[in-house]
Amino acid sequence: MLGYDLLNEPIPHFPQLKKYNSQLEPFYHRIVDVIREVDRNHIVILGGAQWDTNFSVFGPPFDANVMYTFHKYRMPPEQKEIQPYVDFRDTYRVPIWMSESGENTDEWITQYRKLLDKNHIDWAFWPYKKMDSPRSIVSFTRPLYWDEIVAYARLPGTMGDTEKRIAKRPLQDHINAAFAELLENIQLSKCRINEGYLKALGLGPVN
User: Fold this and answer.
1) CATH of the domain spanning 1-126
2) How far is CA 20 from CA 26, 34, 124, 139, in A?
3) Per-residue pLDDT tens for 154-190?
4) What residue spans define the domains of the chain?
5) Per residue in 81-90, pLDDT tens?
6) Strand partners, 45
7) Comparing C-alpha atoms, which of 123, 122, 112 is closest to residue 81?
8) Looking at the whole model, is its pTM more than 0.70?
9) 3-state secondary structure the chain
10) How many angstroms separate the Cα of 3 from the Cα of each of 6, 17, 39, 100, 139?
């Protein structure tokens, strides 16, 4: 086990929620105090506010065995976009990790990955597997009837009209067939390897 990743993308970017930013690090501190009562060896991983993008909520490290993680999407793959994290790392001499990004073109992935490597920042791009998309290491085929399930999930509704929503549900046979096929299609042996995405990550060709 590497350590404890305490919260994933805490405090969304909505203006009315930013009032909680000042409470995030004290909350982390309380959690870490409890962890250290039973485990003083493993790393604790702390993510910034606004979906792991904002490190301004952090002061000097309050624990000797912590690392900090950030997520970045849909921005120019330029130094200025990651400089605040580099500055934080260098100021406090702590490890940082880009633990989530992706959902973009192979060209963008290439540029961003090289930028991270240049700054000696380890990374994790995701997802590993997507349906009908080259923006992952492997892709799998959309099951028959899957669009019916997606359309149903997107229907507006409240707790008061449950019966009306159920009446619009896809046929049970279609539901069963879609999920049975999904479980088949996601097997690695049936997935398509996206060579361009692998190359963008700097990984070698697949044998």
Assistant:
1) 3.20.20.80
2) 11, 22, 27, 38
3) 988 655 677 777 888 999 999 999 999 999 999 999 9
4) 1-126, 129-193
5) 999 999 999 9
6) 5, 67
7) 112
8) yes
9) CCEEECCCCCCCCCHHHHHHHHHHHHHHHHHHHHHHCCCCCCEEEEECHHHHCECCCCCCCCCCCEEEEEECCCCCCCHHHHHHHHHHHHHHCCCEEEEEEECCCHHHHHHHHHHHHHCCCEEEEECCEEECCCCCCEEECCCCCHHHHHHHHCCCCCHHHHHHHHHCCCCHHHHHHHHHHHHHHCCHHHCEECHHHHHHCCCCCCC
10) 9, 28, 10, 17, 30
Both tokens of 101, joined, read 């990004």
- Please give the structure tokens belonging to residue 178: 């879609």
